[in-house]
Design goal:
Strand content: 25-35%
Largest sheet: 8 strands, mixed
Structural class: alpha/beta
Radius of gyration: 15 Å
Mean pLDDT: 89
Helix content: 25-40%
Low-confidence stretches: none
Number of helices: 7
Number of strands: 8
Order of helices and strands: EHEHEHEHEEHEHHE
Length: 192
């Protein structure tokens, strides 16, 4: 499968190189990165332009869109079979993450990902392992962030995010679950 990695950003220069390198260093190479800068006031855009060359894209929004609006721009620009959304302070666990995702997909509409969440770098570990038996289990789950999923591009293009808000993930999670007919889970941590 081809993956579109969508990364919205606002003033996250501190973590950006780690985020982008975690994707650029993947052994699996069938992907594009779409980086959307949401009016940053730091040097994020400079870092992204330095690190990302074609076929990857660096986009700057003309006015503040917040995460949902920035992600929608990336979704509409995407050419992959599946979309992986990362926040610009996240990173893929290791260099084989995309390969593991690809190997475990069998044309499902959505894949739910395990992750280890850290606060301030390495404090307060919160591990999450999605072990859903039904789509309803996923629907009612409290962990609803878009970066916990890999979703078919056609579904995301049909279920865009609410814009001009920072609380876009929950509503969007419900829309994805309603539109998806098939799913799978990866229990091992994929994201940090």
């Amino acid at each position: 499968y081809k993956f579109s990695i969508i990364i919205p950003n606002y003033n996250n220069a501190k973590w950006l190189e780690s985020c982008l390198n975690s994707v650029l260093n993947q052994t699996y190479k069938n992907y594009e990165i779409i980086f959307i800068d949401d009016m940053s006031e730091d040097n994020s855009l400079e870092i992204a332009n330095k690190m990302l060359k074609s076929p990857h894209k660096v986009l700057k929004v003309p006015y503040k869109k917040y995460n949902g609006g920035a992600r929608n721009i990336g979704i509409m620009e995407s050419k992959g079979d599946y979309i992986v959304c990362l926040d610009s302070d996240d990173h893929l666990k290791n260099e084989n993450t995309l390969q593991e995702i690809n190997d475990n997909l069998e044309d499902e509409d959505v894949m739910f990902l395990g992750f280890d969440l850290y606060k301030d770098g390495k404090e307060d570990l919160f591990p999450f392992r999605p072990n859903y038996q039904t789509m309803y289990d996923a629907f009612i789950n409290d962990v609803c962030a878009i970066w916990t999923k890999v979703v078919k591009t056609e579904i995301l293009k049909d279920t865009l995010f609410p814009e001009s808000t920072l609380a876009e993930d929950r509503v969007h999670h419900y829309r994805i679950c309603e539109k998806s007919n098939s799913f799978t889970c990866i229990l091992s941590p994929i994201l940090l």
